[in-house]
Amino acid sequence: MKREEKVDFDLSALTLKELIEVYQNITDFSQFLVESKIEIEEETEDE
Amino acid sequence: MNNFLDFINKDIEAKKTLISTMPTKTKTNKKKFNETIDEIIKKYEEYQTNTRNYLIAKAKSFEIKETSDLDKLTERLEKLENVKFLLNPTNTYLEKMCFDELLYQINNYDTFNFKSLNEIINGFLDKFEQAGIHLESDDFNYTCYVHEYMTAFLEVRNRRLDSYDKVSEIFEQIYWVNPELIHHIELNFRKLIKKNGRKLNHYILELQKEVMDKNNIKDYAHCLEKLQDAYIDLNIASKETISDIIAMAKTKELDIEQYLNDSKGRQTAFESLIPEVKDVEKVLPALEKLKLNVIEYQNYLEFYPIFKHFKDEYEKLLATDKKEYKGLKTIIDEIENKENELEKLNKKIFSGRPGLFEFRSDSGLKQLKLQSVMKANELYELYKTYDIEYFKDKIMMVLTETLTISDVLHLYYSFDYFKKLTIQKIYNMTEYEEIIKYSDNFDLFAMNPTNIIITGVPIFKENNIAKTISNKYRLNSINITEDDLNEDSLKTLLNKILLILRVSKIEKSETSVEKIWFMVQVEKIIAKEIKENE
């Protein structure tokens, strides 16, 4: 992850449609991640 | 890597692969899994915020602020419309003082369940006072019950009391012996308007002089000329601007997706309406005119039932000899005779001095009161005929075979009472607000001096406006058929015209359809955020 943080992105290189698309993809993926999290029950024993 | 979209797409795929291969069997696995997810979420929240802020800043840079000072032009137009209203040669002081509006309200008091009779009565009294006529309780002598009610009413009004409770109590008491009290109050006001005709007319004449001086108007024709100029000025100043288009796109009043270069809607509009036109610029003036014609025709169709009713009802009058026809005079005489009879009865009741053999007891007085109420009821019916004859008389003054739609619009505009009554009847409306809305729209159409088509269309002759319009514009290389002007297709046609005009306007401006589309998308993002934070 640390390597990615250094990447410098140029948003101005994107077209208007691409800008909306990238924002939409980020939003959808964020939502996907939130929904992917696993609920951990406290009493569950480690096998 | 400098293409952020490519990076994100690839990164999402990689991250999805990563998390799909992570073990999740044990509690430790699950913890590790969630930690990884949280780490990615954190990173993506950062991407989201940065991208969002960039989008908003970019959309803001596309905003266009156009300022136009419409207030002054609108104010000028309203002033001239008021002058026109007062100078209108078609109607009388009754309509110019808007007594007809109040008569319509009191006449339909039961139908519309008006909240307050007091407001209507105060409206009448205010109008008399405007003209310097201060009515007293003795002016309300149509029946003894009207007198009793109005005496209590005037006491509250003159003493400026807040509560009309006492008046309501009296109404309740009277109602059970005279349920038609409101009708009789209406007749009393009608009589007072007639009786004070000279004073009211004088008041209007003075008002006319005042507004003509103030607005430098010589006469009615001069007022119409100035009004036409004012309308044209306002129409030019209020022409749709790029900021209007942006605002409409944001509020979804127009679908900006349809305006994009590759949209089917845009292609269809151009291909169907101007298929052979290579230089769109050349047909724009004709398209602008067509737009106005279509809007005018749309209004015509909306109010067509009123025109049809007029034709069905009054065409037969063309065969009537205007000089010989005495409908109005006959009913006026009849009303006058009956009102004299009623006055005689009332004198006996009010003076408390009955004729020798008429009554010597309470039952005799009761009998007289009953007779007066019955006579007032007969008069109420006569006034219904009077209303019909009154409007008929006004129509006959201007009736010719060449009477146009525009003349009919002016007639109804000049006689508010009949306009509302006609709307109520034809469209079967039961809500007062609905009638007012329709009536106001009708007036806007009637008042517009830039109407072109309807000024030349005779109401009593068969006409095909759709054919006239389509033939005219085919000469300008605009491909429209009569079918396009059907009531059901009219909206689609108007949207196509608007699309071509707007696209041309946008292309000539500093913005573009794509920029407007982008602003709309950003607006949606902001709206979604606001909703989620609620």
Give a verbal description of the structure:
The complex is a heterodimer of chains A (47) and B (534). By secondary structure, chain A is an all-alpha fold. Chain A has a domain of 28 residues. Chain A is elongated, with a radius of gyration of 18 Å. With 534 residues, chain B is mainly alpha-helical. Among the domains of chain B are: 59 residues; 152 residues, no CATH class. Chain B contains 24 helices and no strands. About 1% of the residues of chain B have low confidence. At the A-B interface, α2 of A face α1, α2 and α24 of B.
Put the structure in a nutshell.
Chain A is mostly helical and 47 residues long. Helices cover 53% and strands 0% of the residues of chain A. Chain B has 24 helices and no strands.
Distance between the termini of chain A: 30 Å
Oligomeric description of these chains: heterodimer
Regions of chain B with pLDDT < 50 over 5+ consecutive residues?
355-359
Find the structural class of chain B using helix and strand composition.
mainly alpha
Number of beta strands of chain A:
0
How would you spell out the order of helices and strands of chain A?
A: HH
The helix-and-strand class of chain A reads mainly alpha
Order of helices and strands of chain B: HHHHHHHHHHHHHHHHHHHHHHHH
Q: Using the CA coordinates, give the radius of gyration of chain A.
A: 18 Å
Average pLDDT metric of chain A: 80
Radius of gyration of chain B equals: 34 Å
Largest interface, counted by CB within 8 Å of the partner chain's CB: A-B, 34 and 45 residues
- Main pleated sheet of chain A: none
Broad shape of chain B:
extended
Instruction: Name the helicity range of chain A.
Output: 40-55%
Number of helices of chain B: 24
Main sheet record of chain B: none
**Which regions of chain A are unreliable across 5 or more consecutive residues at pLDDT < 50?**
1-7
N-to-C terminal Cα separation of chain B, in Å? 38 Å
